[in-house]
Amino acid sequence: MKIWGTKNLGNPVRVAIFLAEKGIDVPFVDVDLFGKAHLTDEYRAKNPVAQVPVLELDDGTFISETVAICRYFERIHPEPPLMGVGPVGEAVVEMWQRRIEFQFYDAARHVFRHSAEFIRVLEPEQIAPWAEHNRPKVIAALEMMDAQLAGNRFIAGPDFTVADITAILPFQILALLDIKLPDHCRAVARWHEEVLARPSVASVIGERG
Ligand SMILES: N[C@@H](CCC(=O)N[C@@H](CS)C(=O)NCC(=O)O)C(=O)O
User: How far, in Å, is the centroid of ligand 1 from the Cα of 22?
Assistant: First the structure.
């Protein structure tokens, strides 16, 4: 079993943190995105969408999409649960995971892909107004998270879950852009400090995120 993707860069970070939380050791194989290693026919045979991460199982099955990979490990290694427990618990975690992915991460990603100079190698036709259109959406998503975190230790409730893991990566993206966490989002700041200090997160991206 192996995971295609650089462990501390982009979406593979999410899988690496998930595995670290569960204490599972799986080797990561670096894929040089800036060298366009993922755009070869050989790589597309693993994932036709030409993205990392991809989980390769020993029987030759390839599984891409971060949440699908996490779902596989949740099933074969249920403890500690990171995708909720029971019908309501699982649904609540999935609801928050998707809210974070579609409202926060997507908005941050669009700003990044359409404004950062160094990503032009992978996004040659940057659309500046699309980046600007998404900037306020990042702030709106942070405010949505703040309201939830004001009454909850973690994003989906009292336990650390895949929803928290999904939210970590967009903060790395914001650090590359000129987007600061608004001062009034104090609950998000408290949450961010706590998750960065988790051994799983620190081992993958370092304590400063
Ligand atoms: N929906 C995918 C997104 C994966 C993704 O966006 N991967 C990026 C790296 S962070 C990628 O491979 N980008 C290649 C490119 O932009 O050409 C997932 O959840 O795994």
Answer: 23
**Mutation test of ligand 1: which of 3, 11, 169 has the most ligand atoms closer than 8 Å to its C-beta?**
11
Record the pTM: 0.97
Positions of CATH 1.20.1050.10 in the chain? 86-204
Which residues neighbour 180 within 8 Å (Cβ) at sequence distance 6 or greater? 174
Q: Nearest C-alpha to atom 13 of ligand 1 is from which residue? A: 51
Work out which ligand 1 atom sits closest to the CA atom of 52: 12
Instruction: List, for residues 48-95, the tens digit of each pLDDT value.
Output: 999 999 999 999 999 999 999 999 999 999 999 999 999 999 999 999
- Is CATH 3.90.830.10 correct for 86-204? no
Per CATH, the number for 2-76 is: 3.40.30.10
C-beta 122 within 6 A of ligand 1: yes
Q: List where CATH 3.40.30.10 sits in the chain.
A: 2-76
Could you give the CA distance from residue 91 to residue 88 in angstroms, rounded to a whole number?
A: 5
Determine if ligand 1 sits within 6 Å of the CB of residue 33: yes
Q: Where are the beta strands (DSSP E) in the chain?
A: 2-4, 28-29, 54-56, 62-64
Task: Specify the residue with its C-alpha closest to ligand 1, atom 17.
Answer: 122
Neighbours of 193 (CB within 10 A): 11
One-letter amino acid for residue 13 of the chain: V
CA 148 to chain centre: 19
In angstroms, what is the span from residue 52 Cα to ligand 1's centroid?
5
